[in-house]
Design brief:
mainly beta; 5-stranded mixed sheet; 4-stranded antiparallel sheet; 3 helices; 9% helix; 34% strand; Alpha-crystallin/HSP_16
Length: 173
């Protein structure tokens, strides 16, 4: 049996009645209304595609803030527990690694892993770095800055992740 592969810019005549393409899905994330009824947008206009910005913004984008007094990283890690996260400082970098083995959810089995690496400003006091995970899954890594000319200290060490019972005060995307 031959299966015709079709370029995504073209639709079949019965396109609204075919399910969306497999690679358009965000695995491990929740479904939105337009995911359940994709034919509605196609009946309005055959060339209209639902925007995926909402899904992309909710998929774990980080925010880095560096002002005069402190350096802060906010990272959405809602699918990970503190035991699944490892935060290390290696010279001028902070490495955040999250991994959980295969576990069952509503749709079957899933495993996740990510690795992020950020450069620390040279004037961040590495002896006073802290990391916490809020109740809503926002990881906050922060450290105060020292005045220029003072040694900020550079070493390799692990930063423990503490759990907070309140939601994060980080801005939502």
């Amino acid at each position: 049996m031959d299966i015709a592969i079709q370029h995504p810019w073209f639709k079949r005549a019965l396109g609204p009645f075919y399910p969306s393409r497999l690679f358009d899905q965000f695995f491990g994330e929740g479904l939105f209304e337009y995911d359940l009824l994709p034919f509605l947008s196609s009946t309005i206009s055959p060339y209209y595609r639902q925007p995926v910005f909402r899904s992309v913004l909710d998929s774990g984008i980080s925010e880095v803030r560096s002002d005069r007094d402190k350096f802060v990283i906010f990272l959405d890690v809602k699918h990970f527990s503190p035991e699944d996260l490892t935060v290390k400082v290696l010279e001028d970098f902070v490495e955040i690694h999250g991994k959980h083995n295969e576990r069952q959810d509503d749709h079957g089995y899933i495993s996740r892993e990510f690795h992020r690496r950020y450069r620390l400003p040279s004037n961040v006091d590495q002896s006073a770095l802290s990391c916490s995970l809020s109740a809503d899954g926002m990881l906050t890594f922060s450290g105060p800055k020292v005045p220029s000319g003072v040694d900020a200290g550079h070493s390799e060490r692990a930063i423990p992740v503490s759990r907070e019972e309140k939601p994060s005060s980080a801005p939502s995307s």
